[in-house]
Specification:
It is a single chain. This protein is an all-alpha fold. 68% of the residues lie in helices and 0% in strands. The chain has a domain at 28-96. The protein contains four helices and no strands. The termini are far apart. The relative contact order is 0.15.
Length: 103
């Protein structure tokens, strides 16, 4: 493969790498919330993490049935981490889908 054709191949590979599969959709997380929205999501994420820790402790001490408790704990913590990530990125998945939110 010559130098010119190799460079074209590398450039086309990099362009494909930046898109999402065959659809050719470029994923970009544009900031779609303001400082108030970021602060509200961060508070929600911190509260969710604390709630997840409390649920985990209640499950550990068998106040909540084990399987149900761990599933709820895991979902709560994953959700809280996602909301915290949204606050950090300044991006809201609900707003990205076109729905309006108050904050």
């Amino acid at each position: 493969m010559g130098d010119l054709s190799q460079a074209k191949y590398i450039n086309s590979y990099r362009q494909k790498e930046q898109t999402n599969g065959a659809a050719g959709i470029t994923m970009a997380f544009e900031c779609n919330i303001d400082a108030r929205g970021k602060a509200a999501r961060l508070r929600l994420g911190i509260r969710g993490l604390f709630l997840g820790l409390i649920l985990g402790a209640l499950t550990l001490f068998e106040v909540i049935p084990t399987t149900f408790g761990w599933v709820i704990t895991g979902c709560t913590i994953v959700g809280a981490i996602f909301v915290t990530w949204e606050a950090r990125m300044g991006w809201c998945v609900v707003r990205a889908m076109g729905l309006k939110t108050k904050i």
